[in-house]
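User:
Hi there, any thoughts?
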Amino acid sequence: MINQLIVGSGYVVLAEALTLAEAAGINAQALPQCLAGGHADSSLLKQLYPQMQARDFEPPRSYARQLLKDLKAVKEYAQALQLSLPMLEAATRRYTDYVEQGHGMKDTASIVNSYRPAPEAAA
């Protein structure tokens, strides 16, 4: 449960960090190296972020609907413990919207596509 909370929220946070970097004109590809050794460094940053940045989602390595199922299970568990977990709520909402738009069988990391398109894709 705790792993899925961290991973599910982490996917959404990385998607937002990438979206912010691209919108700000920051060299998004350099972020993992720039953040290496700091508190933001993690295996998600090292392994998942480059996949998101490259928009490398085929073939899917995992499925958005699977992570959503896991996030919902964590949410139910937290509710049974009478906990309010806003980060979990936000990640679950983001994946719920994404899956409901027909992206359930897409790569879990493709959640980044629920934000504005990459600058080169918008041109």
Summary: DSSP finds six helices and no strands in the chain.
